[in-house]
Amino acid sequence: MIEVNLSSGEKLNFEDDVFPETFLDKFGVDKEKILALRVNNEICPIYKKIDINSYVEPVMLNSTEGSAIYRRSLCFVLATASHNIFPQKRLLVGHSLGHGYYYTIDGYGSTNQEELSQDDIDKLKKEMKRLIDENLTIKQNRISYSDAVKLFENLNLVETRRQLNFTCPSKFIVNTLENFSDLYFGPLVLKTGVLKVFDIIKYNEGFLLRFPSTEKPEQLSKFEDIPKLFNIYKEYKQWGKRLNVTSVAALNELVSNRKTKEFIDITEMLQARQIAKIADSISNAKDVRMVLMAGPSSSGKTTSSKKLALQLRCLGYTPRVVELDTYYVDRSRTPRDEKGEYDYECLEALDVEQLNKDLIDMFQGKEVAMPSYNFKEGKRFYTGKTIKLEKNDILVMEGIHGLNDKLTPLIPREQKFKIYLSALTQLNLDDHNRIPTSDNRLIRRIVRDSQFRGKSAAETIKMWPSVQRGERLYIFPFQDKADAMLNTALDYELAVLKVFAQPLLRRVSPLEKEYAEADRLIRFLNAFCQIPVTDVPGQSILREFVGGSEFKY
User: What is the DSSP letter of 350?
Assistant: First the structure.
């Protein structure tokens, strides 16, 4: 007998394996809006058999997991539509922009036409709409390794085929829609008919596939362009193409051929060069007395501020680094979110009044006692460290609220230089699977929290939605106000972080809600060949997370 306990409270017993489709109507919700199931805290497609005693919950469209499944499935429908409309050309996924993904079609065009036309975009959109309106079934097939090789070669999925040289199981599960098949690192919807909310708009040399937000799954939000951020990504993508390293398979080839040393050096040098350019911009600006660096969690703000300080020293400044994290209020005063959890991301979690008092005193030439913060105990303390600004001193301050003028309302705008940091890797997993910036940062944070804050992977994963909520509210709205943007991603870093992260993720139990996310990240990291931490330079941003930095924190 197989016992199935539903989240609705009902208990079901079956004499043999059971397909979940037979009891979807027993959850007490609209079964048409169930995108997948959480079975013993593992996210599973609706069509996967249950063959063990299980606790089962529906995954709805307005959940984090449901939203991810919706986006992933929509991407698959786009890939199928592109294969049908442009069978001889390669669809390539890029980075996210707003609630959308940027795509290009490699080699598209001719002598008289170098980019997609609006007519081409309309054809793609029409074909996607057909695939969705017909409510087709997305099938899963189990095929052999040799058949997978032939399949992806025939479909011209170059990077997907290339990755098979490093991921070599005897059989693969592929998703199929009409005559197109592809690999995806997570479940898809059963029927295309649920994917009605989307749009395709022409953008730059390609287009954006737009999808709804998790909070409002029934509608598309207004598109807000961020050209500065897009140009940063475009610049790094062109750099990757010049080095012929634009995919995980290309990175894995470097690892296999023991040629990562030069790539690591070039990657670090490129980042150092970008920081040097920003330092030059600060030097050329008039009246600047403080530099404010902001970015989402684990974007490398602390190390970036120290590396920028070194570049400013080369230009004759004496930088004084202040970390906003040290101005957290004591935990007894920390605000709570709507779930009753501590909200460390809101501006009110910082002692803004004390910060501004200290800044005014500094700019008046007074000596100021600098605070420290104990994250385990949630208390501020003082060690006797002080700062007194001299004539050539410039203040460098980093933290998630750095771009918000409400943080420093008493400092004139012309005295502030704002920098936005983001970890935008230009690598893709393969042709149609991108590496989300948030995944890169989450893995960084899991490793750092374990190394320096005594947190388990489950604890970090549990608080991540709150962190992301804070980013949406308090960081992303201000990114276009920055005077400069810095990409802190290192294209080799996930191959290093894998060594640290996977053992931590494997300790997350199936009895914990966070198991689904831990399992997904383990499978994601399996795509990377390992790079030893000994290859990471001592001043690398990556050292902020794995330890062994030459900087003092």
Answer: B
